[in-house]
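Reopening closed ticket. The problem is back. First fold of the pair:
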Amino acid sequence: MTRSVQVAVLALLVLPALAVAQVAPDLGEIRQKPALAESDRSRIRAFVQETVRAMLTNTDPDRRGMVVARQSLLDEVQTSENRTEAYRQAFAEETLGVLQKMGDQAVSQPARVNFVMTLAGLNLIDSASLLQSALASDPYPASRYWAAKGLAMLAPKIVQSVVPRLEGEIADTVDKVLETPQPTLVLVQLFEALGAFDHERAHDVLAAGIVKVSKGLDASDPVVRQMVSEAIRSLERAYSREVRPDAKKELLFAYAALCAHIMPPAEESPPPAGYATLMSELNASLEKTTGEDVGFESSDPLALQQLSLLEWVERLARTNRIPRRPEMPAAVEAAVKGATSGGGAAAGQAPNTAAGKAGT
């Protein structure tokens, strides 16, 4: 994700803390009711319509008005104190209904982002179609981030409610979205959502998506490391639940692609924090998944840790547990050929490649 998009997302997270007042709905005793009548819902609907309109049409330069409106809606849904479950559910449903009708009234990018943030915060299964639409076609990266986050937050609820059709539909949407490069923060959320699902289609899209984004990973970026960590967790869960032999091979192939492309920095000393943790995390997940080990030692220099990860690639390929050997960076290909042919570094020494400094 570009720095400008990250700043935009963070600004929208910080702004609620700067707001000086919340919109106070005059809903009184309705909040305490164990069951709501249509007249109660009408009062909720009137408040929601007014508040959504204020959120979508606010033009204040500091954007506080739209943020206050958004937060006043989500407070009614997410705050359990002095609010019954029936009330919070009804409020969420009425808010979704209003958002479905008024979404095209957003007058600016911040208004649209606040719209999607509100939609995500409702945590309603019926909001999935709008979230998918925003993910696939919203023109603003920050909106697509919140759509992806909304789907990730909703995924466990979809699984618990046993809606496999919806899991497959979301996987199809994500597959289309991944046809074009996506900001890393969006990928974090998409891999989390796919990893939560049990649907075969979700497992297939997860494996293919990880292979696609594995090339050119810059693990010096903490957001990239977060994305890879999420990908590892999702692969592990998917593999443990997958029963199709060919699909299991593709999931292992995604593991292999990560092993091939997580490269330590060539010259930095000490390396950026998180490199070693990420390599150890990937190795530990492979050990748990396969029940094997390749002699990975977290105390080794990063270049030797990388060679251990490459040994995973070679072992999986040698034993036909992956459909093919993943493409590797040119420097790594040369190092592997040298090491396996005996023409590379001396025994006990890691090759000095662009993938990382030699270490003994």
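Second fold of the pair, where the issue appears:
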Amino acid sequence: MKSEIPLNLSDGGIYLLVVARENDRHGALEKNVALLKVLEFGQELIHVCGQQGVEGLYVLLGTTSPARTFLMITAASLHEIRHRMHEYVRGKHGTASAVRDFDWHALQGFAEALADVAWPRRNANDFDGPAAEEFVSRLAQTELNIMWLRTLQHYLANILQHTFADLRMRERVPELDPATEVDLRLVDARLLAERTLGIYQEIRSDRDDPEFLALALYQTINETLRGQTFQ
């Protein structure tokens, strides 16, 4: 099974993951409302763009003024996700933790994932990004597992990099490789996200379900940290 192969995470990445898990007082890192809702919304976005086009996108976003560029679509998406988070917490019917510790990491991770799939050749000269038609076309050609992989990768990377900064690692270990922070995103977080998708394929139900993906992330982190101790 894929989950039996040890992950080749960096020592620094494992250390930061240990600290992040230890600092997670509510046990919400893998199953919080923000993460659940960005995964759900990404799933809906892929479906709507593939089946209903631009008009379906506008209905999903619930916006009266059409979002005509990537930047506008992303802003409207985050607004809708926040609304869904509020409704989920207010309804008190779900099992995901309502703590706010990971909101920023999940929401930014989702925006970064959108940029990866809808605006892969972005540059500093283009502030608004591709038009809605190109956005929809790219999302329609994106498989859900790619959207979820990217979202998890950036979510985890944001947590690792935030922990790295909080611990003032550059000051504590000045000889660190200049690429350390970048590698946390491109290597460590990517490996964790890939393992999570692998476990998800083993435990998933008949249909795609973000809650099973959150469970797979929990299992991935548990397996990665099993037996890990740092002084």
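Update: turned out to be a display glitch only; the data is intact. DSSP finds ten helices and no strands in the chain. The first helix runs from residue 11 to 23. Please close again.
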